[in-house]
Amino acid sequence: MRIEKLDENTKKNLLENLLKRSPNSYGSYEASVQEILDTVKEKRDAALFEYTEKFDKAVINAQNIQVTEEEIKEAYECVDEELLRIIRRALKNIESYHAKQMQYSWFDSKPDGTILGQKVTALQRVGVYVPGGKAVYPSSVLMNIMPAKVAGVEEIIMVTPPGKDGKVNPTTLVAAKEAGATAVYKVGGAQAIAALAYGTESIPKVDKIVGPGNIYVALAKKAVYGHVSIDSIAGPSEILVLADETANPRYVAADLLSQAEHDELASAILVTTSSELAEKVSAETDKFIQELSRGEIIQKSLDNYGHILVADTMEDAIDAANEIASEHLEIMTANPFDVMTKIRNAGAIFIGEYSSEPLGDYFAGPNHILPTNGTAKFFSPLSVDDFLKKSSIISYSRNALSEIHEDIEKFAEAEQLTAHANSIKVRFE
């Protein structure tokens, strides 16, 4: 991996380079995505069937687009019992963590007859996108569905592209059943997002769409925002390790590569105060690449978006980490909890040398669907909050309103909204 001195120039170049990976930088795809969205909106199911055959080479129709109970039963027969046990253990951790995020309605009443409050209501129907085809991500199925389930969403509609045989991967199906999906449909890509956003004869319109996907899925979610809500627009995966001379270089290298293997656009960055650690980590990554099955992808990822930055002080290193606002941030320093208190921007923070990133991907419980491309500065991980909406509650008695009605009338008149003022005034004529 390339080793560079951390200064304002290298930080600026790095940030500019990382932003090239953002879905917002792929405008050339937008016309194609919009055409798919418009066609599905107009032709509905017919368009879904055509696009699925064109892109996924699978023949889907009204009779087989929805996964049946028989198919789910077959899927269970194909999944190893040990893997099923692990899925259930992970699901329990994910449910337990997200249950603590749950918010409830509240009301505050006063003796004068004033009642103010907030009514918390789960969304009625949400759509969950899960990548498919060659990729198999049962962990993403759990992470998308469980917070919706905890929130109390009535209908959880999952879409995922089928294989050429017209079937969904068994592990994906089992994960969906275990997590509590209401229905699973065999459709992917921008056409699946269109179906969820507008509705077709087979797939009902949803209130919100969540889940990561490729560039077509990301741009489709961006385009339908407003017709429905979305969680965020996910970019390529990324990790930043913040380390000092106490870090184990082999652990650091292994963790960097855990994200670099996702795809050639993935970003793996080490920011350290130790030149010696930087050299050792670079050497360890070279060794690992020779051993790992996705070595070619890892190498291209590191060549394009892999960096080792050597900072003069830990304060400089922390400032850089906050500027980059990485999806995953690992802290391997002598006092990691102290460093953690100074981190403002990160999707998920992993503290200490035994808290490697895959722990969060699969098992610990916090959600692994995280803000990318610097959006951790203003976005949060997927959570129960994403599946709840809030309504304000206001109730005043005549006595309570009489104390303040003149103030409200004057405020409205100051804005020249006389009908507003009159709405209050008529109650005291």
From TrEMBL:
What gene name is listed for this protein? hisD
One MF annotation (Gene Ontology) recorded for this entry: histidinol dehydrogenase activity
Q: Where, by residue number, is the active site?
A: 327 (proton acceptor), 328 (proton acceptor)
UniProt function note: Catalyzes the sequential NAD-dependent oxidations of L-histidinol to L-histidinaldehyde and then to L-histidine.
Per the UniProt entry, the Enzyme Commission number(s) are: 1.1.1.23
Q: What is this protein called?
A: Histidinol dehydrogenase
| Alphabetized Gene3D superfamilies for the sequence | 1.20.5.1300, Nitrogenase molybdenum iron protein domain
> What reaction is this protein's catalytic activity?
L-histidinol + 2 NAD(+) + H2O = L-histidine + 2 NADH + 3 H(+)
What does the record's cofactor remark say about binding? Binds 1 zinc ion per subunit.
**Cofactor needs:** Zn(2+)
Q: What keywords are assigned to this protein?
A: Amino-acid biosynthesis, Histidine biosynthesis, Metal-binding, NAD, Oxidoreductase, Zinc
